Structures are given as C-alpha cells and as structure tokens.
## 1
Amino acid sequence: MNQFMRAAIDEAKKGLAEGGVPIGSVIVHNGKIIGRGHNRRVQRGSPILHGEMDAFENAGRQPASVYRECTLYTTLSPCCMCSGAIELYGITHVVVGENKTFMGAEDRLRALGVTVEVLQEPTCIELMNTFIEHHPQLWNEDIGA
C-alpha cells in the first residue's frame, strides 16, 4: 500500500473516530497531497460531505490545469455525486481502496477516459464491513437507500 492510500485510510479512521462514516480521500498533485478529507455528513449535518467532496473542499480553489494532473485516492468506490465532481474538475486518475461493499460510478468514470484502479485493500474492506454491520441505518442514509 502506498503512502497516499495510507493517508486516505487515516482520514477514514478520523471520520469513524468522530462518529461518522469511515470513508477517506486525498487529492495528490506532483507527489504532494493538496487536499484531504473524510465523510463528515454526520458530524456536519451535511447531505454532500462525502470523503471526496471534503477533500475537494480542503484543496481549495485550484486551476483546472492542476486538477487535470491530479490523482484522487479514496477508500471506497466513488458514488455518482463524487464521480460528478471528479468529472467536473477533470481528474484523470482515481485509485479506489475497495468496491466490494459499495460499487460506485466506476464505469461512468472509465467511459469518460478516467483511469480507475481498484486495490481491494483489506483495511478498507474491513472498515466498511464493520461499520455497515454496526450502523446499517446510517450507511443506508449515506448511500441514499
């Protein structure tokens, strides 16, 4: 596991420790993290603060040319909302920790020419399986079920 997926997992664990959904994300440009975040829907009472959206928010305003050179790391397959942000900002490479517990809009991203790598990282799978087992209602709310 590389340092950037480790950083995304650290973000997911922060979210869990705060009472939220354990999903984390980092945005990397030229080998440096420019944005990091974790799902804060519960903590902030927000309908949109998924891990990827929080990472975009924390990256601040960046020119499109920067985003086109970025890789986004996320512990869980990005949903349609987060995939839309990836598309909007022209991210060309997404590294997904796992998609066994939730399959997001990976096919849509690939159809747009985005390189999507799925690692099936055991830590990511375990975090989500444990969370879903203990908090099924909160998980269903998070994914709109």
Note: The beta strands are 24-29, 32-38, 70-74, 93-96, 115-118.
## 2
Amino acid sequence: MAYQLECAVWEFTLKCNLRCSHCGSSAGIARPDELTTKECIKLCEDLAELRCNDVSLMGGEPFLRNDWPQVAQCITDLGMNLNFVTNGILIDKYIDDIAKYNPKVVGISLDGTEQTHDRIRGKSGAFKKANNSIDLLIDRGIQATAITTVSKINFKDLHALKDVIYKKGCNWQIQVAMPFGNFDKRHLLTKEEYYAVALFISSQRIKTSFDNLPVIGAHCFGYNSKILPGCHGWKGCTAGISSIGITSDGGIVGCLSMGNDCFIEGNVRDAPLKDIWQNPDNFKYNRQFIKNSLGPNCKDCKHGEKCRGGCNSVSYILTKKFHNNPYCFYTIEKDIIKT
C-alpha cells in the first residue's frame, strides 16, 4: 500500500534558551551532530519530492539556528506550507524575517497565567515575551496559535488563561503533558482531570464562534465520547501513515512525541528519505495494524478497529504498548462517570 506523506514535524535543533519542566525532549543543548544547512536543504527537497504539504520547524527553539531563514525560504520556494513552533522569546528579534516567509501558522507556547507560565518555563519574563510575540504576529497578519500543555501545575489556570487568549483573538490548542523527558509523573493529570479539560474545550467551542476562534484539543484528546460533540472523527494514529517526525541529526520517526530517539526508522544521512518512507518494513506498529494489535485497554472495545487504540504517543508512554491508550473518553465515561 502506498502512503501519502502530508505533514513533517522537524526538531530543527535541540538547542533551547529555556528549560521547561514539561519538555519531552529535555531540550537545552544542541545534539553533537545536527544536520548541516546543506543537509537541511536536501531534506527539504526530499520532502517536496514526496509531495509533503506541511513542514513545521520546532525545537528546542528553532530560531536559535542561524540558518533558519535559508531553510524557511527553501520550504516555501518548494511549495510546502511553513509552520513554526516556538517559545516566543526571539519573535521580536525576527518578526520582519518571519513575516517575509509567510508562514501558515506560528505556534507560541503559553502555559498559564504569568506566575505559572514563568515557573513552567524556568524564566522570569517568559510570559510577557510570549504574549508580546502573539501580538506581533497578529499585527503582521500571521496566524498565531497559543499552545497550552496541561498538567496539574497549570490545570486550574485554564479559565484565567482563556480571558488572556480571547482578548488577543488567536487560535488555541490544548494538549496534555506526558511523563517523559523533563516531566515529573507526579504532575500528570488524572483521568478525571483529563476529562475535565475535555469538558472545558467542548464548552469553549460551544460558547465561541469556532470558525473565528478555534479552541481545539490536540491529537492526545479523544475518543468516541457519548457526551462531547465532535469526538468521532478519529481514524487512528497518523504516525508513519501520513506524518513523520525528524530529529535534528536526521533521524526519521513516526512521531516525535513518542520520545525523540525512540522508534527511529532510518536516518537521511544513510538513506534517501523516500526510501525510508516507502520501506514496507518501517512504521510497522501502524502500517501493519490488525485488530489483534489492540492492547488490553482496547482489545474488547467496539470502537477499537476504527480508533486503533487512540494516540500511540500517550499509549506507549503510559503503558509501554501501542494501541492501548487509557486516556479515552469512551472508557472514562463507561468506567468512571458511569454514563
């Protein structure tokens, strides 16, 4: 079966100017042998050859690489959509250049009210920088998305943060912190808290004009709720099906959120990206899925074959198995709130 690559999420560098408590990459210091500019350009050409639609540069902090403008220009010149995910610290320095490359979306991490955000990010003033960055992007007509990673640390900040984000008029993506990298498992949301966040997302989508101010749960939210609207579109994890992750030293994975150095299918220094993507022995956990692949949390579920056990990142991190996500609306509603 042929698979069409639609999205590549690229850990452009592991170097970072913050030390965030939930960072799954434990970012800070660049990998010792990150791709050169020439190798990055070749990788962009290989992505275009596979007709990839979207390329997202993230980190670490992508704007700490001096060659980001060349790579951004190459992505757009090749007809692919350019996106950034950033902590916002350097946006004011580079806003003119960013606007020049016309990114589709720039995601800015915003993890709570000022005190909470600065605590999570480990830097005083980080909240003000992130807020100012969103304003700068909006002023230039660039679509900005606030990205909030939720844990017990900032769970209670969502309502206050809502007021900050709504005043700006930017999009809002909410996702859940998982216990790998820097994140301490003690701060992981319980299933009840997770479901409460889902209720919050749902309530905000009802209260706002979704077309004008989207509030979304990331891939880690779902699935098959009896109560919450819009939770029936999940068709399984896209890692290795329509998306890939790229490590800063050229490793190809299905999804960076599984742990950047886990499940590497090949390296672009050793083989062309096209060969890695089209190798029938790669991404087996998704491409060779059958009903028997479902883990114990999902094997008897009536939605299992369609849902494929939910987000494989959450599933593997919490249970060490694929297709076995315990953070599932259908399961929570059945086993905890007894609907």
Note: The longest helix spans residues 191-207.
## 3
Amino acid sequence: MARPLFDPLTVPVDFVGGEAPLAAERLDSNWLRARLANQLPWTVEDDEERHWRQLQMGYPVREAAVLMPIVQRASGPTMLFTQRDPDLTDHPGQISFPGGRVEEYDASPIETALRETEEEIGLARKHIEIIGQLPLYHTGTGYCVTPTIGLVMPPFDLQPDVREVAEVFEVPLTFLMDGSHHQHHTVRLPGQTARRTFYSMPYQHHFIWGATAAMIRNLFHLLRS
C-alpha cells in the first residue's frame, strides 16, 4: 500500500500567503458564474507538485478529474470535501475533492467528475451546475487532474461510499478565499536532495493540504483577478 513519505502535520510553516480576503460580492453565485465564463488574465501558482513529479522516475501519467463543489447555503457558500478512507491505496486518509480516474467510457473530464461524485458521496448531478474549470494540475503521484468547479444547490442527500470515504464535511468559502489562512511548508525527504513545498489550510480538526490546497489557491488567484 502506498503511504505518504512524510507526515505533513509535522512540517513547520515557512510563511503565510497573507493576501487579503475576497470581497463578499465575489462569492455571490452570479458573480462566480460571470468570472468563470469570462476569465481575466491570471497567473497559475508555480506547480511544485509538477516539479516533484519530474523527479520521480517510472510513474505513468494517469488522467483524473475532481469536482470543486461550492454549496449554496443560506448562511453563505461553502466548499465540500471528503476525507478518504485510511486504508485506500492512493492518498489514504487525505482530504480531497470528490473525483477519480478518467475512464474510457467518460465523455469528458466533467463527466468523470460528476460520475465520481455520485459514486463516492451519492450527490446527484441534478443538484450540480458546472460553471468552469481550472488549469490541469499534476500531482506528485503521477495524476494529471482536471479541477471542475460546480455550484451545488441544496437540499440534497448524501450517501458516502464507506469503502472510500471516511467523512464528508464543508468549509465556509470565506475562510478558504482568505490568504491569511494559506500556510506554506517546505520539506526535505530522507535520501532526497530536492525539497518539496506545499500549502495547507487547517480548518478546525481538518488539515487540508497538498494538491487539494493547491487547487484552492489557484481558484483564489482566479477569483482575485
């Protein structure tokens, strides 16, 4: 079973992103639709996972897609996450967006994201409005991921697949779209000369980090543009 090569909880914080939080109007569903449909120029944050992957020999590149679900709660929008089962082969126990590998029968990465979301947590696609995508993201384990952004309309029922998902939870979008909550880390692995860097966004007892945090950072940059 593949296990992380280090414990991210033990890696010190180098610095905090520190960018100002998004203005409230930029979290409105109509504003989000308009910005995703007409993106202004913005810069993707340097993909440290891409550089890390280039150091790893023998990893096949595997296509995948995730849904970044923004739930339209009356109290304010939230983002929905899953905590993966600790016994899974890939990324055990980590906090992720619902998603998975692209299959031959999937018509598009969007179809993959919707299918995997329904399979993993039982969220029916009738509740999801796809409003856009982020640039491809390359993980350290050889996945090329298409992040797909969707607005999720309550009420809805969830039925998590207990074989894959340990927990489903939501985080206020106001928390995630605030650079003061984005922590940067650097780690050098035993036997490696290169260093790996990553972001984290701890929320309550949840530690959001790695590829999931990096995709959130890129959404943040897009919405700040």
Note: The helical segments are 29-37, 48-55, 109-121, 173-176, 210-224.
